[in-house]
Write a structure and sequence with these properties.
The protein is built from nine helices and ten strands. It has helices at residues 56-63, 86-95, 113-125, 137-147, 164-176, 194-211, 222-228, 246-251, 256-263, and strands spanning 4-17, 28-41, 45-49, 71-76, 79-80, 96-99, 182-186, 214-219, 231-236, 239-245.
């Protein structure tokens, strides 16, 4: 197997709720993520599966430092993410991008699709990392939209003019704008109906091959994770309870919680 692209060491996120005024009770702690250690290898898809509220999204966002960890370590491509300066973190985020769960809330309704897709170039150009004249934005935006199955005419339109599946395609195009190595896919099909979600999953599989991407694919659906993932990590109450090859996990699960997830899986699921 290829070298580890992302290394997580005992990554932990604790939320503290302070006690009320004059109360003698101590502040309460909630461990959303509890000492998770994972390696994700270049070119693979690691599926992270578990019920809602188990800490999957918190873990994915900590990888990008959209949420700051309480403790632990994150190394990406040999670089220490948690010790990165603001400038270093911006450079890291060229290589690490995210596709959000909600295709309705994740796009600015006041921006045309062309401006949404080119926004990452403008942000990084302001830091001197991408020159605005190094390539034609309109040509590149058209190429990205074509790659996700949208026509050039989409560039002149606003998000409200598209279906949920089309909006998610726009979000994927935006995530690919800086040619990243790694994508966090945070339940990218959970807000879509089954047939549209299947199209997006197949699109992600094709883009991974074409662009040489590595995925952390977060989902509560075992069938989707099983279809797309090389390996599966099963998460429960902030902890990884089982980790292994996707075939081994689905055919011979060891943990009772994994067995419960599989037992709740529909017999037929088409992608």
């Amino acid at each position: 197997m290829a070298a580890a692209l992302l290394e997580l060491g005992k990554l932990t996120k604790i939320y503290r709720r302070e006690s009320r005024l004059f109360s003698r009770s101590a502040a309460e702690e909630f461990r959303a993520v509890n000492e998770v250690s994972l390696d994700i290898f270049a070119g693979e898809t690691l599926g992270l599966v578990g019920e809602s509220g188990c800490g999957k999204t918190t873990l994915g966002r900590m990888v990008l430092r959209l949420i700051e960890p309480t403790s632990g370590s994150i190394r990406f491509d040999g670089r220490d993410v948690l010790r990165a300066s603001a400038g270093e973190l911006r450079a890291l985020r060229r290589d690490m991008q995210i596709v959000f769960q909600d295709p309705y809330a994740s796009l600015n309704p006041r921006m045309r699709v062309f401006d949404i897709v080119r926004e990452p170039w403008l942000i990084h150009a302001s830091n001197g990392e991408v020159t605005t004249h190094s390539f034609d934005h309109r040509t590149r935006a058209r190429e990205l939209l074509n790659a996700v199955g949208l026509e050039e005419s989409a560039m002149a339109r606003y998000p409200h003019e598209f279906s949920g599946g089309q909006r998610q395609r726009i979000g994927i195009a935006r995530a690919l704008a800086l040619r990243p190595k790694f994508l966090v896919l945070d339940e990218p099909v959970s807000a879509l109906d089954v047939s549209v979600g299947a199209q997006i999953v197949n699109l992600l599989a094709r883009l991974q091959r074409e662009f040489g991407l590595t995925y952390l694919f977060i989902s509560h659906s075992m069938p989707i994770v099983r279809y797309l993932s090389t390996r599966i990590a099963v998460m429960r109450k902030g902890e990884i309870v089982e980790l292994g090859d996707s075939v081994q996990i689905t055919l011979s699960p060891q943990h009772e919680y994994t067995k419960t997830l599989l037992a709740a899986t529909p017999e037929v699921e088409t992608f």
